[in-house]
Amino acid sequence: MPEFPLRRRSRTKRPMVKTIEAENYDLVDRYEIIKGHGAVEILWNRNTLENIYSVVEPSLTDEEKRLLTSLPKEMQMVIPNLKNLGKDYNDIEIGSMLDQYVRAYQIKMSDETRSKLIYYLKRDFEGLGVIEVIVRDPYVEDVSCDGYSVPIFVYHRKYGSIKTNVVFRNPDALNSYVIKLAQICGKEISVSEPILDGATPQGHRVQAIYGEEISTRGSTFTFRLFREKPFTPIELIKFGTASSEMVTYFWYMIENLSSALIAGVPAVGKTSTLNAMLMLVPPPSKIFSIEETREINILHQNWVATSTREGEFDADDPRSQISRIDMFELVKMAMRQRPTYIVVGEVRGREASSLFQAMSTGHTTYSTIHADSMEATVNRLESSPLNIPRIMITYLNTVIFNKFVRSGDSVSRRITEVDEMSGFNSETGEVIYNKVFTYDSFRGKHSFMGYSNLYKKAQFTRGFTSSQFKAEFEERKKLLEEMVRSDITNYVDISKIINTYYREPDKALIAASGGTI
Question: Which terminus has fewer CB within 10 Å in the chain: N or C?
Fold first, then answer.
């Protein structure tokens, strides 16, 4: 979700790498992903006037290519017969396997060749093969293969949607790769069941289509990459997604148990915003999250993280049937566990009814929805399959809108509007809402519109006068801004500073400014 300005294009020509012809390209950016072996170069194609995402890996001689092709099968035959090694081929470390193979066949191999072969063997057998470097790139959010003989595309946080130099040249290789992806996700894919929706052990969301039955270009796959390091509220401010005043508002919203929906089009950063907001939850509070595929990632101890399960049935053994558990069932389960916050990754089915029932009974809920305006949000909630009565929509306290904002040749993600539900007009049937924050794309600035029901609620709860509440608000806002200035983005540090604030505000401010608590 972070946004970065485009760097000025360098007119320095790059060295020859793989199949890219250096004379047609200028080097824009370069950074290393896998030390000594895998790097990324962003190139400017002077002919097509577009950026190219180039994966740079060690080049192989013809002999090294021959070895790499034959090694796996030959090592599998040799290794189990060698002494002092386990019998399970899969449990043997690849470097040791290669060394034992070299000794067994008395092959002469330079350290450089050994290093390259180990890299490629690990990449292909322990990693994700040709896209391993791409998947490890912290700037890449999505990886998309649209078929064979078509370049893989990525969504890069700095350069947007960009074509890569990685291509599956033949359909058989791509089919085999999609089958491998299914196995990594613990699922199966075939001509009879050609659609895969799963997740890797690292949490990356994978969707794939096998063969040409429903995809004219052959097998396809898409990765939605899971961010291991949780996105923080300080980063929302740092990268301009939200203002410090807006994040302070979210802090009060979480504290005062106000329910919210985060709305926007796909890939606009709704889940990242949700993750960041949840980091403001007080540590003792219980969170119960519900998702189809894991995307919420918070470092919170009192957190029950659940996901749906598809039903399975073995025709050879009817007793082996596994029942399906959907989001509707999990929302009902959450209500029985008395969590402080119920979080649903995305509402798009009958679970919405249970979620709004939970709101009506006093539960605090957070979720995301695909909609780009308040009118669209209300219409989406009312329409099938959500079917929420308009009067019940008013149990929702806040709606937060994430949108793409274009500035010149770059695209940024911004929270462009925060609205509060104010009630329901029984005569017109309209939902009444109040705009609290807006975003001016011309000035690149978030603005408070002058009134908030939440602020009145927070002021009343604390028994503050208007001036006392304003003073506390400014104190919290300053605390967040100091963390931005000190570049404190680690969740543990942020949580420690916020927790300290409740006991000793002065010490928290010192810590936010780079001091020690």
Answer: C
